[in-house]
Structures are given as C-alpha cells and as structure tokens.
Amino acid sequence: xxxxxxxxxxxxxxxxxxxxKKGFKVMGLDNLNDYYDINFxxxxxxxxxxxxxxxxxxxxxRNKHSLKKLKKHKKKIKYVIHLAGQAGVRYSFINPISYVExxxxxxxxxxxxxxxxxxxxxxxxxxxxxxxGENLQEQNTPISVYAVSKKTxxxxxxxYCEIYKMKFVGMRFFTVYGPNGRPDMSVxxxxxxxxxxxxxxxxxxxxxxxxxxxxxxxxxxxxxxLKFTNKTVKIKDCKVFNIGNPKSIYLKNLIKLIKKxxxxxxxxxxxxxxxxxxxxxxxxxxxxxxxxxxxxKVDLENGLIKFYEWFKNEK
Length: 315
Ligand SMILES: NC(=O)c1ccc[n+]([C@@H]2O[C@H](COP(=O)([O-])OP(=O)(O)OC[C@H]3O[C@@H](n4cnc5c(N)ncnc54)[C@H](O)[C@@H]3O)[C@@H](O)[C@H]2O)c1
Prior knowledge:
This protein is α/β, with parallel strands linked by helices. Helices cover 39% and strands 17% of the residues. The site of nicotinamide-adenine-dinucleotide (NAD) has 29 residues, from α1, α3 and β5.
C-alpha cells in the first residue's frame, strides 16, 4: 500500500488517481485546510473516494496523536509519498508560522511515526525549486521561510536516514500546472481573470523565467523515483532530485501563449518584484535523466491547451 499525504491537494490528487487506476491500494491523508477554497479539495476527494482501493483519513500532521488512527494499517504501508504541507512563497510573508507547523513539525511527526518500521521501503517527499534562491546551481540560498522550511525537510531526512537507516528521496518540484491546479498559482489566476474580463497582475514586470512543468510529467517522474527506491537494495539512502521541465520560460512568453489560445485581448498591470520571488528557475535534470529516465513530454503550449479544456468545463 502507498500512503499519499496531501491527497486532496493538486499533486496529491493526481498522484493518488494515477496509482488507483493502476490497481494499487492507496491510503490518502489530508487535513483539508482552507489555504485556498476548500471546494477544490472536496471535489478532488469525492473523485478519489469512488475507487474501491482508496481509503481516506482526515488527519492533521501537526498533531502527532492524529496519526494514531493509521496504526493498524502501518505494517501494510510500503511507500510514503509526502506531499502535505503549506505551499506558496508569497503566503510565507503573511503567515510564516504556518510553514514551521505544516512543513517542519508535520514532517517530524510523520517520521517519528514511521521510524523503525521494517515493512517501509522508502519515503518520497516534496521539496521545492525555491530552495535554490537566486542561485541556479548547488549552493542554494533560500530567500523565503517557505524555501527554508523545504530545505529543512531535506536536512531532517538526512538525520533520519543516518540514525534510523531509512531511505529517502526529496523531490524539488518546479512550478507545476495543469487540470485541477491550485487557484493561487499564476496559470490558474491568469486564465480565470482573463476569461472574466479582469486585468491580470504580472510581477517583476514580466521578466521572470520559470520551469513550468505539466502535472502528468510530474506524476510520471515521481513514479520513476518510486520504482528506483524499490530497485536499490541499500536500505539507508538519502537523495534529492529536481523534478521540473528543463525548459525555462520567459513570463511574457507564457502570457503570449495564453493570449493565442484564448484569442482575447489581455489587460495587464505590471508590478515590481515581490518579496521572496526569484528571477529565474531552471530545472537541471542531467543526473536524473541518466539515473532514472525522467521525461518531460508535454510542452507549455500543449499543457496550457489541456488546462484550458479542463477549466472551460469547470466554470
Ligand atoms: N504545485 C507546485 O508548483 C509545487 C512546487 C514546488 C513544491 N510543491 C510542494 O508540493 C507539495 C504539494 O503541492 P500542491 O501544489 O499539491 O499543494 P496543495 O496545497 O494543493 O496540497 C497540499 C495538501 O496538503 C494538505 N495539508 C497541509 N497541511 C497539512 C497538515 N498539517 N496535515 C495534513 N494535510 C495537510 C492541504 O490540505 C492540501 O490538500 C507541497 O508540499 C508543495 O509545497 C508544489
């Protein structure tokens, strides 16, 4: 059985569906918080609940006692894919404590629950491209509490790997978009506002670059990581991989593509660079592709078209 934390979230929902359709038993866990409209989460969860091989526990990882209800299933769990957490760079300047509680405390509670559990093969957890800060190379310098919280997950994993001989892979995701996407992210907000004839706000005067990554590419590569941890005989291991489209896109080009797809005039207000925003993210994938065969099959234009198809039906 696979435990997927944050199963009602954007990536968690897609990953759960993927494994459920393949016939795996999936245990989903989420506290269904209201960081964004909870109806998105309810809707995703109602789809997952239709699968017979899915069981859901409403659990808040901030509270270690909340995990007790999973105890009788613990021995059946072979993999944990930890996606629950407080996302969003900007919100970390409004509510930084949420990142300590939902990312750091929550992760320690999860690891305390699973340490010394022999039936567990590996723990995969969500890190983020944000940990690089303005530096695209290895010497990362986080510039937000969000980034620090994700970097902390990577450090905590090293400790549990060393002390409890556990196997970890951290996954640094790069700007994920697609159907059922988060309403606080740029692709969703741009489509939503343009189609309602509202103006869009574009940060850093549109001069950002981002490795926009389509959701099915994220899921495909997470599955590669899971298989990789199953193949390696070594128990103790602690790796971190980038999962992000190597093509970094200029923000103004993203807007041009949306304009082409919607065939609509766009009203834009350009704003300055926001706190915590980095100028460029670009996923390097050389080691990942060689080691695990990561692939990125959906280019930005096709990804946006697929997103729009979904969005039209939702509204
Ligand atoms: N979407 C992206 O572009 C992106 C990029 C980099 C990293 N990430 C990371 O990937 C993970 C998944 O991202 P997402 O876009 O699906 O976000 P999301 O907010 O849609 O999903 C996170 C889920 O975790 C749940 N959750 C939060 N705190 C919890 C707690 N204490 N206990 C139980 N459940 C809790 C939320 O209710 C939510 O459903 C997050 O950790 C995020 O930081 C996402």
